[in-house]
Amino acid sequence: MPRLSAFRGRIPAALLVAAAFTGLAALSFTAPASAQDPAATVMSACSKCHNTQRICANLGVKDKTAWNTTVTRMMGKGAQVSEADKPAVVEWLAAQQAGAKPVCQ
User: Fold this and answer.
1) pLDDT at residue 53 above 90?
2) C-alpha span between 66 and 73 (Å, rounded)
């Protein structure tokens, strides 16, 4: 039977490494693929403070950089868009053509 003193210092480190890998694996399997539909986020977050016609007027006009600036500014003013959802929202807004639904109804 091995003496326990031979394992002193190694067991806790091995357990820590195993626990870390187990935790990372659990996170990767439980994280949602997408938090929410970007169109739904735009409709719910933006229409809380202003008419969607304001957004509609800029569809097909603003590029991705301009939408990123706008969304960042609006988040600073309280728009309920998470940092995780922001890239998808910006991408969605930049991809819309003038008159696109559901924003321009």
Assistant:
1) yes
2) 11
> What are the sequence ranges of the domains in the chain?
1-31, 38-95
- Residues in contact with 76: Cβ distance below 8 Å, sequence separation at least 6, in sequence order: none
CA nearest to 95, candidates 60, 47, 70, 68: 60
Query: Encoding tokens for residue 10?
Result: 């190694």
| Long-range pairs, 23-32, Cβ under 8 A, ≥24 | none
Quote helix, strand, coil % in the chain, to nearest 5. Answer: 60, 0, 40
* 19-47 confidence digits (pLDDT tens): 444 444 444 333 333 457 999 999 999 99
pLDDT tens-digit readout, 65-81? 999 999 999 999 999 99
pLDDT-based confidence at residue 8 (cuts at 50, 70, 90): low
